[in-house]
Specification:
Layout (H helix, E strand, L loop, with lengths): L1 E7 L10 E5 L12 E6 L4 E11 L14 E2 L8 H14 L3 H8 L13 E4 L3 H13 L3 H12 L7 E2 H8 L3 H9 L3 E4 H4 L18 H15 L5 E6 L5 H14 L3 E5 L7 H11 L3 E3 L6 H12 L5 E4 L11 E7 L16 H12 L2 E6 L4 H8 L4 E5 L10 E6 H6 L8 H13 L2 E5 L9 E3 L16 E5 L2 E6 L6 E3 L12 E3 L4 H11 L5 E4 L6 H13 L5 E4 L12 E6 L13 H13 L10 E6 L5 H8 L2 H15 L6 E9 L2 H16 L5 E13 L2 E10 L2 H17 L7 E6 L4
Parallel strand pairs: 9-14, 9-15, 10-12, 10-13, 11-12, 13-14, 16-26, 17-24, 17-25, 23-24, 25-26
Antiparallel strand pairs: 1-2, 1-4, 3-4, 3-5, 6-7, 6-8, 18-22, 19-20, 20-21, 27-29, 27-30, 28-29
Bound molecules: adenosine-5'-diphosphate and zinc ion (ZN) (2 copies).
C-alpha cells in the first residue's frame, strides 16, 4: 500500500505540516512527488487541494483511519522534487509555511491551454520525402520513418500537421522533431504555438573580441566547470566594463556542454535592449519570463524549459525556479539590486536561494555588479565567493569626471534654484554642443526625514545611526521617531546643529524638475520618466528609445533611468539631491546611496566623448558620497563594513524582525512586550524594542516591531521557532498575528 505526505494548499501556521493520505491504486502512477492532488480535509471532509511532498509504504497511524486522495489535478504542473527540497530549505531559512514556499518555487502551477497550435511543415518536396523514407528505413530510424509517414499522409502535403497530434500519433519526442528540423527535413512553426512576446524582432549580434580581463573571467568560470568545480563568482566590473559580454560567452560554453542557464535581471532592467542582446546571440533557444506575460505565456515558457526546448531563461527573481533538468549556471546581473529581495512570504533573497539551488544541482553561480552588495563582497572577503575583476570600460571609454557641489554653499550665495551654478553652466554647454544630459532625481527617502537647508544636518536617532521619521497630523510634522528602537522627539523648531529655522522635510518631484528645466532652458527638449509616467513598461521603453535616438536633449528621471540602458550621446549626468537616500531610516541607506550614485554616474560618457557628473548634495563630506564621486568601491566597503560591525548589522551580524499585529492596540503592545521579554532571556541575542513599526497602523491594525540581533543566523532561526511554539501555547494566534523577517532592510 502506498501513502503520500500532503501539504494542504492553505497558508495557515496551524496546518503547516504534512498530512498523510492513501494513494488509491488507480492513481499510483500520477500521484508522484510534486503533484497537485485533491483531498478530503478535516472533520467535514471538505474537498481541498494539496501537494505531495513525499511517498512511502509506511502508514503513520491506523491504516483504517487514513483517508484517500480523491484525484490528481489534471491541469496541475508537477514540481521537480529538488524544487520541493528547495522549498523546504526556504521555509526553514525564512519562515512562513511550507505552502508559501511551494508557491514560491512553482511560479507556474497550472496548465493554461495554448491559444494556437504549432504546426509542423515539410521542408522538402514530396518526392524527396519519399526517397528519404527509404534511406531512414535502411538505417532503421523508425521514429523518423513514422514522422515522415505522417507528413506524407497530410492533405494537402504542404499544410503539414499539428505539432501535438504529430507527436502523439508517431509516439516521438521533441528531440526527434528538433533533429529533423536541424536536418532541414521539416520546419516547426513555433511562433504560433508559443506566445513569445519578443518573436518579431530581427536582432543583429555584435561580435566582440574579449579583452584580457574578460577572457580571464570566462576562462576561470568555464575552466572550473570543465574540472567539475562549481563555485560562486562575483564579477566585479565598473559600469560598461563588459560584464554582459562575459555572461554571454560563459553561457555559450555552458550551453555547448549541453547544460542550461538561468539569467536573472532586475525587473526594471528587463528592457527590450537587454533581451534583444541575448536573443541576437542565442536565437530561439532563449526565453523570457516576466511579470507582463499572460498566464498562458508564462505556462508556455515554463513548459518549454521543462521539455528542454530552450537552454536559457531570462527573467526577474521568480525565473530562478525555472524547471531545467541540467542546470549548469545561474547568472545574477546587478546582484545588489533590491528587487532580488522578495517582499512576500517567504521573504527570500534570490542570491541566497540561487546559491542553495546551485549547490543542490552542482551548478555554478555568477553574480555581477559594478557596486556589489555588502553581502556579496563580505562573502568574497570570507573566501566563500571568488572575485573576478573588470577594471576598465570596454571599448576604451573612460570613466566620467565627478564634481561635488555643496548645496549649502549655493544657498549662502542666494541661489535658491534646484540647479547649482555649476550644473546650469554644464547643461548650457551640452545644449550648445548638441550633447545629451540626464538629470537624476533621487526619489528614495523622499520627504521621509527632516533636515536643515542651511547646514545639511539630518535629525537622526542617537542610538541607531539612522534618521528619524517624521510623523504628521493634518499636514504638520508633529514628532520624529526611530523605527528601530522607538526613540521619539517632538518636531524641533530649530536645527539642533546650527540653530537655523530652515528645517523641514524635503520635497521635490520629477514633474517640478521638468517644469524648471523648461523655464531655465527654454530651447531644450525634455523627456521625463518616473514610476508615474503613463504607459507602464512599454511607455518607459518608448521614452528610453526616443532618448537613445537623440530626440531630446534632456531626460529627467528617477532611479528607473540608471539601469540597463546605454546612451552614447550622454556626456553629462546631473544628480540633483544625492543625499536624499541617505535618510531613509534603515541600515542599508549608505549602501543604497553609494550604489545609486555610482550607477547614475556610470550613465555618463558611454560613447566616444568623455563624460562629466555633477553631484549636488547637502552632505558633501559623507563617505558614501565621497566614495561614489571617486568611484572607489573598496574604500566605501571598508568604511561601511566598519559601521555595520559597530552596530551589529548584516552582513556581519544578522537580524530577526518580529512584527506583532492586532486590531487591539493595547494587546499588540503588551504581547510585543511579552515576546521581547522572552527574547531578552536569550543571552546570544541583542534585543531592540518593541517600538511602533515604520507604519504604526494599517487598516486599523496596530503594528509593533521587535528586533533581535545575533552574529549566528542559525540562532535566529531557533529563536523564531521557539517564539512560534510559545505563541501557539499561549493560544494567541486568534488575537494577534506575528510575522517574522530575517535581515529586513528597514
Ligand atoms: P556592462 O554589462 O558591464 O555594463 P556591457 O557588456 O553592456 O557592459 O558592455 C558595454 C559596451 O561595451 C557594450 O556596447 C558592449 O558591446 C561593449 N563591449 C563589451 N566588451 C567589449 C570588448 N571586449 N571590446 C569592445 N567592446 C566591448
Ligand atoms: Zn543646521
Ligand atoms: Zn534608534
Amino acid at each position: 500500500m502506498l501513502f503520500a505526505d500532503v501539504i494542504v494548499d492553505i497558508s495557515v501556521k496551524s496546518l503547516d505540516r504534512p498530512f498523510q493520505y492513501r494513494i488509491p491504486e488507480e492513481l499510483e502512477e500520477e500521484a508522484v512527488v510534486g503533484a497537485m492532488v485533491e483531498i478530503p480535509f478535516g472533520k467535514g471532509n471538505r474537498a481541498m487541494k494539496g501537494y505531495i511532498i513525499e511517498r512511502s509504504t509506511v502508514p503513520n497511524y491506523d491504516v483504517a483511519k487514513i483517508k484517500s486522495i480523491t484525484a490528481v489535478v489534471k491541469q496541475g504542473v508537477v514540481a521537480e522534487s529538488h524544487l520541493l527540497s528547495l522549498a523546504y530549505w526556504m521555509k526553514r531559512q525564512y519562515g512562513g509555511t511550507m505552502n508559501d514556499a511551494i508557491k514560491a518555487v512553482m511560479p507556474v502551477r497550472r496548465e493554461i491551454k495554448e491559444k494556437e497550435h504549432r504546426q509542423v511543415f515539410p521542408a522538402i518536396e514530396q518526392e524527396e520525402m519519399l526517397q528519404l523514407r527509404e534511406e531512414l528505413q535502411q538505417k532503421h530510424q523508425m521514429a523518423r520513418v513514422r514522422v515522415v509517414d505522417a507528413l506524407l499522409s497530410a492533405v494537402p502535403f504542404s499544410g503539414g500537421m499539428e505539432y501535438g497530434a504529430l507527436c502523439s500519433k508517431c509516439k516521438v519526442t521533441a528531440q526527434v522533431l528538433r533533429a529533423m528540423e536541424q536536418k532541414n527535413i521539416l520546419t516547426i512553426d513555433a511562433k504560433r504555438q508559443y506566445r513569445n512576446p519578443y518573436e518579431d524582432h530581427e536582432d543583429e549580434d555584435k561580435i566582440v573580441q574579449l579583452n584580457e580581463e574578460q577572457r580571464q573571467a570566462v576562462d576561470r568560470i568555464c575552466g572550473d566547470r570543465q574540472k567539475g568545480i562549481a563555485d560562486t563568482y562575483l564579477l566585479y566590473g565598473v559600469t560598461g566594463s563588459g560584464k554582459t559580454e562575459v555572461y554571454m560567452q560563459c553561457i555559450r560554453e555552458i550551453v555547448d556542454r549541453g547544460e542550461q542557464v538561468i539569467v536573472l535581471i532586475p525587473e526594471i532592467a528587463l528592457t527590450f535592449q537587454t533581451v534583444h542582446r541575448f536573443h541576437a546571440r542565442f536565437g530561439d533557444r532563449v526565453s523570457v519570463l516576466h511579470s507582463k506575460l499572460s498566464a498562458g505565456e508564462r505556462y508556455d515558457q515554463y513548459t518549454r524549459a521543462k521539455r528542454g526546448e530552450i537552454d536559457i531563461m531570462i527573467g526577474p527573481r521568480s525565473a530562478l525556479f525555472t524547471p531545467f533538468e541540467k542546470l549548469g549556471l545561474i547568472v545574477i546581473d546587478e546582484e545588489h539590486e533590491q528587487s532580488y529581495q522578495s517582499e512576500t512570504m517567504p521573504k527570500y533573497h534570490a542570491r541566497e536561494v540561487a546559491r542553495q539551488r546551485a549547490s543542490m544541482l552542482g551548478a555554478s553561480l555568477l553574480l555581477g555588479s559594478a557596486t556589489p552588495s555588502m553581502e556579496a563582497y563580505y562573502q568574497v572577503q570570507q573566501g566563500n565567493f571568488h572575485k573576478l575583476t573588470l577594471s576598465k570600460r570596454a571599448g576604451g571609454a573612460s570613466l566620467p569626471q565627478v564634481e561635488i557641489v555643496d548645496l549649502r554653499e549655493e544657498l549662502r550665495q542666494k541661489n535658491y534654484s534646484v540647479f547649482s551654478r555649476s550644473l546650469r553652466q554644464e547643461i548650457e554647454e551640452r545644449l550648445a554642443r548638441k550633447e545629451q544630459t540626464i538629470l537624476f532625481l533621487n526619489r528614495r527617502g523622499y520627504a521621509g526625514f527632516v533636515s536643515c537647508r542651511e547646514c545639511g544636518e539630518v535629525v537622526g536617532c542617537p542610538h541607531c545611526a539612522v534618521s528619524l521619521k517624521p510623523h504628521s497630523r493634518r499636514g504638520q510634522v508633529e514628532y520624529l521617531r526611530c523605527h528601530y528602537c522607538g526613540y521619539t522627539v517632538p518636531m524641533p523648531q530649530k536645527c539642533p546643529s546650527c540653530g537655523s529655522k530652515y528645517i523641514g522635510t524635503f520635497g521635490l518631484g520629477t514633474q517640478q524638475v521638468e517644469q524648471m528645466v523648461q523655464k531655465q532652458f527654454p530651447g531644450a527638449s525634455v523627456l521625463r520618466m518616473d514610476a508615474d509616467t503613463t504607459g507602464g513598461k512599454a511607455g518607459h521603453d518608448k521614452i528610453l528609445q526616443q532618448f537613445a535616438e537623440r530626440q531630446a536633449d534632456i531626460l529627467v528621471g528617477t532611479q528607473m533611468i540608471v539601469k540597463g540602458h546605454d546612451f552614447p550621446g550622454v556626456t553629462l549626468v546631473g544628480i540633483l539631491a544625492a543625499d536624499l537616500s541617505l535618510n531613509v531610516g534603515d541600515y542599508t541607506a549608505a549602501e543604497r546611496t553609494y550604489q545609486l550614485l555610482a550607477q547614475a554616474a556610470g550613465r555618463a560618457g558611454r560613447g566616444q566623448t568623455p563624460g562629466k557628473v555633477v553631484l549636488q548634495t547637502y552632505q558633501p563630506e559623507h563617505y558614501s558620497i565621497v566614495c561614489a564621486a571617486e568611484q572607489d568601491y573598496d574604500k566605501f566597503y571598508k568604511h561601511e563594513l566598519f559601521m555595520r560591525q559597530m552596530l551589529q548589522y548584516p552582513p556581519v551580524s544578522h537580524i530577526l524582525g518580529v512584527l506583532v499585529l492586532s486590531a487591539d492596540c493595547e494587546l499588540a503592545k503588551e504581547f510585543a512586550q511579552e515576546l521581547a521579554g522572552r527574547m531578552k532571556g536569550d543571552e546570544h541575542l541583542t534585543v531592540l524594542g518593541p517600538a511602533e513599526a515604520a507604519i504604526g497602523k494599517i487598516n486599523d491594525i496596530y503594528r509593533y516591531m521587535i528586533y533581535g540581533k545575533c552574529s549566528d543566523y542559525a540562532v535566529l532561526v531557533q529563536v523564531k521557532d521557539k517564539l512560534e511554539a510559545y505563541i501557539n501555547d499561549r493560544g494567541m494566534q486568534s488575537k494577534c498575528t506575528v510575522q517574522f523577517a530575517f535581515d529586513p532592510a528597514g
